[in-house]
Specification:
GO terms for molecular function: acyltransferase activity, transferring groups other than amino-acyl groups. InterPro entries: AB_hydrolase_fold, Esterase-like, Mycobacterial_A85_antigen. Keywords: Signal. By secondary structure, the protein is of the alpha+beta class. The protein folds into two domains: 129 residues, Immunoglobulin-like (Sandwich); 240 residues, Alpha/Beta hydrolase fold, catalytic domain (Rossmann fold, 3-Layer(aba) Sandwich). It is 24% helix and 26% strand.
């Protein structure tokens, strides 16, 4: 697989993912604060049509532009009033779901003080949530909840006494002695190990699926997908051969397979075998999944690429995983995912393709993908 070409294509989709549909309908004045706002902050706001509105007080500033805008048009320019407030509304409705953004104030890049910060785009960015019509599956509900805890595991390969990971354990884990399967779930380029549980609501998705009897309870492990040798901004997968080098030569495969997995198996009640272990990831995390599952077929039996490319029969060869799951948004490359699934099925591989309708390279695509993937695991 040409990883350089795939990564460039994914980055192109990512940078243009906030492509709002133009509408001739008047803007409805039913704006409400975004669910990710700081406590007590009224802005940013979203309305029922998916428009976003911003209001920033900056008395001495001359111009503010919000990066959350109409693709190549440079974002949303805010207008200053006599009291020093800059206000503006996106030119069109946004895609449903979560979006990163930042402010450009007189040429400098800053976060919006009204909303929370989320690690994405290799920095802490502002975030906004455009309510999705199907948001119920990741909503906070009155159901038994699992636990997301931080662990620090030693990594000799990176000379780190405590690399960080987050572990989701399903409801009831603390009270019993049951052993569980494990999904190793990777984030995308520019994000970190917090992404899946914060932006992605992975724990809430699992809580709701388990409560509805739609998914088997399992553990999810989320760790940082880069090593000390390759950090954001230092080239990484953007350089020729960078992704494979990052995973294999610079050691993330070693961190995951030789250090993290043994630590998890010795500190949590897992089955600890291939038949009860899955790997999946979004975007770069999907590419990592692709490389590592092919290099270490004895470790994982369930594979998931979420906007992270596809497998081919020639790559898999005699490897017969129990499941190959591939997904993307309908605004990404659905034809490629669907055709790859057809080819794999014809070659005898248990394959599922999923296309998230109306989304691009963004977290609603990946939330929906996890919702579809989880019930298929460990059957």
């Amino acid at each position: 697989m040409n990883y350089k070409r795939l990564f460039i294509a994914l980055m192109a989709v990512l940078t243009s993912s906030i492509c709002q549909a133009q509408t001739n309908s008047p803007i409805k004045e039913d704006f409400q604060p975004s669910t990710f706002n700081q406590p007590g902050q009224a802005y940013p706001q979203v309305n029922s049509q998916g428009y976003a509105r911003f209001k920033i007080k900056a008395l001495k500033a001359d111009s503010i532009r919000v990066s959350l805008g109409l693709g190549g048009r440079g974002g949303t320019k805010l207008t200053k009033d006599a009291e020093g407030y800059f206000t503006g509304t996106t030119e069109g409705p946004m895609d449903e779901g979560f979006h990163y953004y930042h402010l450009t104030v007189d040429g400098g890049v800053f976060n919006d003080p009204g909303t929370g910060n989320f690690y994405g785009s290799t920095r802490w960015e502002s975030g906004i949530e455009i309510p999705a019509h199907d948001k119920d599956f990741y909503a906070m509900k009155d159901v038994p909840h699992g636990n997301v805890q931080q662990i620090l595991f030693p990594s000799k390969s990176t000379n780190t006494p405590g690399r960080r990971a987050f572990v989701y354990t399903p409801p009831g884990y603390e009270k019993g002695n049951t052993r569980y399967p494990v999904l190793y779930l990777q984030h995308g380029w520019g994000e970190d190990e917090t992404a899946w549980s914060v932006q992605g609501h992975a724990n809430l998705i699992m809580d709701n699926l388990i409560a509805d009897g739609k998914a088997k309870p399992f553990i999810i492990v989320m760790t940082y997908g880069l090593t000390n040798n390759v950090r954001p901004g230092a080239g990484g997968p953007r350089t020729p051969g960078g992704l494979t080098k990052m995973i294999l030569e610079n050691g993330f495969q070693t961190v995951l397979v030789d250090e993290l997995i043994p630590y998890v198996d010795s500190h949590f009640r897992t089955y600890g075998d291939k038949a009860h272990r899955a790997m999946a990831g979004l975007s770069m995390g999907g590419m990592e999944t692709h490389v590592i599952t092919l290099a270490k077929p004895e470790v994982f039996d369930y594979y998931g690429l979420l906007s992270g490319g596809v497998y081919t029969p020639s790559e898999l060869g005699k490897i017969k995983p129990k499941l190959v799951f591939m997904s993307c948004g309908s605004k990404e490359n659905p034809a490629g995912v669907n055709s790859a699934a057809v080819e794999l099925k014809s070659a005898g591989y248990n394959t599922v393709a999923y296309i998230s309708e109306g989304t691009a390279h963004e977290f609603l695509t990946w939330r929906r993908s996890l919702k579809e993937l989880a019930p298929l695991l460990f059957k």
